[in-house]
Specification:
By secondary structure, the protein is α/β, with parallel strands linked by helices. 41% of the residues lie in helices and 12% in strands. Helix 4 packs parallel to helix 5 and helix 15 runs parallel beside helix 16. The protein is globular and about 65 Å long. It holds the Pfam family LRR_RI_capping.
């Protein structure tokens, strides 16, 4: 049994009702419910008396250090079987880390700890690392985003990594680490016996100077499948270094996020080689890089390669225009694997989308999710988009936000949604102006097809 509640104010009567339900739940989620430390006292009792409870999510609540202290009393009980604990943005400080250290040291069932968006600081996380080093700790996933960490944390992290072969996921994004600390961390990862599968280092102050060391991790850790270094100024030179590790036969990368990394079309030669030859790679994000049409055309050549197994391509806000759409269309007509294509915030225009649709209509194309928000589209292309919606059975998600489609365009899209052949389940239409009559039509359509979600 699962309890999943979000964004609900808890009255005393409602809370009492839920407590009864919680006693038999395997998973409890109470995100954004305005919980406080007093609620944690009750939750501690639930943790203690419900041995089937394995997952507890309490994100975005004002629990504070006092609340975590209550929770940990339940977590330290022998009857506790909790495996996953989420405490993101719960107003915790370093004071909570001593209590959590005790849990890490004494509770082998706990395999996931998510404490991002809390002001734990370097001193607090050093205490957590001490708990990780205890032989009883079996932690597999540690999320420390936005924890106000400094470069001084790396020595403690490396010591924990060295002693913790169970660790599979480490997220340190949005902490001011810098190149020197990231290099040190990468050396520790290469030496550690852990089989790390996920490493997130977004917005960590990384430049091209760190990329050779990250590349070494990719070459040495065949377990690493998910790497995110987005929002770091690595540039084309850094990407070239990363690709040396990515192209290593030992590297088995599946998901690679390189958004806002100061890449240009010069990087697309290396990226194309990666897409066309690294058969494990299924998802790549290049959002907010100045790739331009020339770079996109190189990527499209890679997508045509039979060895490419890419399923998701995110190229939003990459300086693309109508000029690259013929190449994209050609790639779509040949690539059977691509399922998600994000091309929003590019000046594709109606003519560009008309070209894209030629590829989308090809029997080889298996696109499920298509994002074209803010692409300078008008009602003129909506008839063709409607054809895609009614013809392409695999298409289940379509984003047309921030385009001046007006009543004429929205009506064509609605007509397609009414068609029994249309399988679109989610239509995203943010910030598009339409009349009250069209609004009524959209609401009526939702009522008649409850499986369709229109987000506006």
């Amino acid at each position: 049994m699962e309890l999943d509640i979000q964004c609900e104010e808890m009255s005393p009567s409602r809370w009492a009702e839920l407590l009864t339900t919680m006693k038999s739940c395997k998973s409890i989620r109470l995100d954004d419910c305005n919980l406080s430390s007093s609620n944690c006292e009750d939750l501690s009792s639930v943790i203690n008396t419900n041995p089937s409870l394995t997952e507890l999510k309490l994100n975005n609540n004002e629990l504070g250090d006092a609340g975590v202290e209550y929770l940990c009393k339940g977590l330290l009980m022998p009857t506790c079987s909790l495996q996953k604990l989420w405490l993101q943005n719960c107003n915790l400080t370093s004071a909570s880390c001593e209590t959590l250290r005790s849990v890490l040291s004494a509770q082998p069932s706990l395999t996931e700890l998510h404490v991002g968006d809390n002001k734990l600081g370097t001193a607090g996380v050093k205490v957590l690392c001490q708990g990780m080093m205890n032989p009883s700790c079996k932690l597999q996933k540690l999320q420390l985003e936005y924890c106000e960490l400094t470069p001084d944390i790396v020595e403690a992290l490396n010591a924990a990594l060295k002693s913790k072969p169970t660790l599979k996921e480490l997220s340190l994004s949005n902490n001011t680490l810098g190149d020197t600390a990231v290099k040190q961390l990468c050396r520790g990862l290469v030496e550690a016996s852990c089989n790390l599968e996920l490493l997130h280092l977004e917005n960590c102050g990384i430049t091209s100077d760190s990329c050779w060391d990250i590349s070494a991790v990719l070459s040495n850790k065949s377990s690493l499948m998910d790497l995110s270094v987005g929002d770091n100024k690595i540039g084309d030179s850094g990407l070239a270094l990363l690709c040396q590790g990515l192209m290593n036969p030992n590297c088995k990368i599946q998901k690679l996020w390189l958004w806002d990394c100061d890449l240009t079309s010069a990087s697309c030669k290396d990226l194309s080689r990666l897409i066309s030859t690294k058969e494990t790679l299924t998802e790549i994000s290049l959002i907010d890089n100045n790739l331009r049409d020339s770079g996109m055309e190189m990527l499209c050549q890679a997508l045509k390669d039979p060895k490419s197994k890419l399923q998701e391509l995110w190229i939003r806000e990459c300086g693309l225009t109508t000029a690259c759409c013929k190449a994209v269309s050609s790639a779509l007509s040949l690539n059977k694997h691509l399922k998600v294509l994000h091309m929003g915030e590019n000046k594709l225009g109606d003519a560009g989308v008309e070209l894209l649709c030629e590829g989308l209509l090809h029997p080889n194309c298996n696109i499920q999710s298509l994002w074209l928000g803010n692409c300078d589209l008008t009602a003129a292309c909506c008839a063709t988009l409607a054809t895609i919606m009614t013809t392409k059975q695999c298409l289940t998600e379509l984003d047309l936000s921030y385009n001046p489609l007006e009543d004429e365009g929205i009506r064509k899209i609605c007509e397609a949604l009414r068609n029994p052949s249309c399988n679109v389940q989610q239509l995203i239409l943010y910030d598009i102006l339409w009349s009250s009559e069209v609004d009524d039509e959209l609401r009526a359509l939702e009522d008649s097809k409850p499986e369709v979600k229109i987000i506006s």
